[in-house]
Amino acid sequence: xxxxxxxxxxxxxxxxxxxxxxxxRLCGSTTMDTSTNLQERLFEAVDLPVKCLVLExxxxxxxxxxxxxAIMATYLRCRHRKCRMKLxxxxxxxxxxxxxxxxxxxxxxxxxxxxALAV
Length: 119
Known about the structure:
The protein is an alpha/beta fold.
């Protein structure tokens, strides 16, 4: 199952379901204006019949604190639904932000989607 991307001029969210895994690809820059849409799309992905949510971040080049908040809210929803959450391929500046917020201590970060799906 694959949903069409939700987008504005600078940000897209694409959700794909592969068996019991939801893969969410984020592309562009999150802003205050896109964070609500981001959280809604992430919650939709967690609400699918899945056991794992994979956030593919290799094309994400900027994230605001509101974007971090959407990821944290999704993490809590995943925990409630007993769903694992993984991050894939964040760029160095996104890793720095995730490290600063201590988000990387909560779940695993993988270099490639294949790595994340293999575990």
